[in-house]
Amino acid sequence: MFFFPYLSPLKRRIFTPRWSSFRIPVSVSPAYPPSMAMCLFFPPVRKPRLASYVHRSFLARFSVLPRFTDRVDIMSLDISSQKPVFGSRFHSFRLVNAYSINLADQRVHSVPPESLFPCTGIPLLVVGDLNIHNPLADPLRSFSSQEVHYSAPYFELAALGGFALLNSPGGHTRFPLSGKARLSVIDLPFANPQLLPFIKGWETSLASTGSDHVAIRIMLASASSDPAPPRLRWDLTDWELLSPIIKNFIVLPPPPCPSPKDLDKWLTGALDRLTGLLKDHTPSSHPSHHSKPWWTPHLTNLRRKYHQAARKARKQDTRALREMANVSKSGYFKAIKVAKNKHWSSFLLTPTPQNLWTAKRFASGWAPRLFPSLPGGQNPGTNERGPTRTLLPPQGSLFPPP
Predict the structure, then answer these.
(1) Domain range for residue 381?
(2) Looking at the structure, do residues 138 and 194 belong to the same domain, yes or no?
(3) pLDDT above 70 as % of the chain
(4) Number of structural domains in the chain
(5) Of 347, 369, 390, at which residue does a domain stop?
(6) Number of other CB atoms surrounding residue 64 within 10 Å
(7) Which of 321, 347, 373 is the last residue of a domain?
(8) Exposure class string for 132-166: b at 16+ Cβ within 10 A, else e
(9) Do residues 309 and 324 lie in contact, with contact meaning Cβ atoms separated by under 8 Å?
(10) Considering the entire predicted model, what is its pTM?
């Protein structure tokens, strides 16, 4: 278990810790530091602004190397092991801990975004009290233009590096002790693409620490190897049988004077009951690598009839049965062609930037160049025919009928 307190110097050099905890499932430890079971790391300066606690049972299995710079508001821990961590190919991961304060009337922050999101090839977790407000972390809060302007560089740089914000949107992490300030989300953890598959949860359910910041727990574990649940075929739902059941569905009354937890439990129970009824009357798909997006139940019936006729013709070998098998075969393959044409047309009716050049590759039969050009012009910008005429038939030839 790791604890990252952000130390706020008060009068007489008394420090109030603001705890954020990140739990690694390999260790068992007491709820909150400090204790004799914890090992402390902090920048070697006279007045550090942050520190990191690591449980000693964790140190028995992993090597922890603190990395310091000349800064007092940022540090990192390199965690290494002889065996791969999280069941991955990586033998180490890194934790970056930061505490940023506002300078120059909140126009400048002490920790710039360039120091938080380095480009590295190992799993990286960035945690910190950044003292910034952004709609991505707290979408229900009213923001000023200055707050969005000063926080945008952090989220933009994180997005460019592939970092993902782990906070639940709107999950407050700071509850001011006085009634003058609003609840806020300023304790922000980010995970890079190498670490994101191993993130199993984010929660603030730990007991109060006595600070105005709540304790944050992040669970890391091996990536799940369980297969994804089968997709439900909502187009095949038996609505004739399900409709009267839904009409008679009764929602139990809510508990009197419920707490937010009781109200959430009541609503979740009613939703689970209704969802269970829908799933019980909806078949699930069982896709394989042989599955085709254009395949229909009608083609399944035609294929069954074709194989039945072909087997009967091979066994009895009569002229009538052979002709029947040929008719079934012709109808079956014609239906396949019609289904492919229909699927191709619907695919072209809704082009997106993600599938546009994929469709061109399917139509041309060869991989596109690094900088593809449209037919009839030197490049998309100089094509005088215009993109619409170029893309769609009958004027264009980029997507001809199959």
Answers:
(1) 351-402
(2) yes
(3) 75
(4) 4
(5) 347
(6) 16
(7) 347
(8) bbbbbbbeebeeeeebeebbeebbeebeebebebb
(9) yes
(10) 0.53
